[in-house]
Amino acid sequence: MVRPEKITIPLLRKMKKDGEKIACLTAYDWMMASLLDTVGIDLILVGDSGAMVFAGHETTLPITMDQMLYHTQAVSRGVKHALIIADMPFLSYQTSSEKAIENAGRFLKEGGADGVKIEGGEPMAETIHKLVDVGIPVMGHLGLTPQSIHAFGGYRLRGKGTKEAEGLKHDAKILEQAGVFSIVLEKIPVSLAEEITKSVSIPTIGIGAGPHCDGQILVTHDMLGLFETFKPKFVRRYAELAQIIRDATERYIKDIKQGKYPSKEESY
Q: Which end of the chain is more exposed for a tag (fewer CB within 10 A), N or C?
């Protein structure tokens, strides 16, 4: 169902209060964004995951501010209803609060985003608070934060041990107090995600965090079977578009080689 009104941050809070799950996906271009928007997706994240599924990098780290702005501009042109959130890329917000405000502001002013997403817990609280104070909505991100992949040493489950789990619960409350409107919980145990979701008044959005979060997000290229390099356990594929594209392209090549395309009906 497509809502007649634009999705807003207050509406997301109401959805949590009413027990309505929030459906989120990623997009990096106008066409995909418009397709997702027309069928009623609630939130579109212009993710730094585009570094991997769009640009072919091995991690999210290489994507730049200018590249993320380009993708955000393209997405915003295709969206009428969904809330658009832009990922702040690596080193666009960690160096200083002033730099974070400048870069986040560009996503709203130049990119057409409704807010930004920042990875990290308590160390980022002051920066988040300053962003919110100047009118920039911020989504938090805890658990497996891909920009910290080298520090983590891989994409393993986070929050499995008691100490780390307690730290994530603490960080969630700190982020809520700093003013984030929502928190992404990535690749953490189901029970921990449920506990955090119940402990905060803001929506939690899970990715590999079980069914008890207030909403779910997947990388669209994973969900549609376009990205085949690896498939995390938490990904459910609703299509196998990579194979469909290969099959269609093979038929196209064959028709050209055999002189079957274009036909008389396809010619002027």
A: C
Are 146 and 225 in the same domain? yes
Radius of gyration of the chain (CA): 20
Amino acid at 80: K
Contacts (Cβ under 8 Å, ≥6 apart) of 34: 78, 79
Indicate if 183 and 257 belong to the same structural domain: no
pLDDT one-digit tens code per residue, 38-75: 999 999 999 999 999 999 999 999 999 999 999 999 99
* DSSP code of residue 89: P
Dihedrals φ, ψ of 267, to 5°? -120, 160
Q: How many domains does the chain have?
A: 2
pLDDT digits (tens, 9 = 90+) for 157-179: 999 999 999 999 999 999 999 99
Structure tokens at 11: 């509406």
Please name every residue paired with 141 in a beta bridge, in sequence order, or none if there are none.
184
Catalytic residues: 186
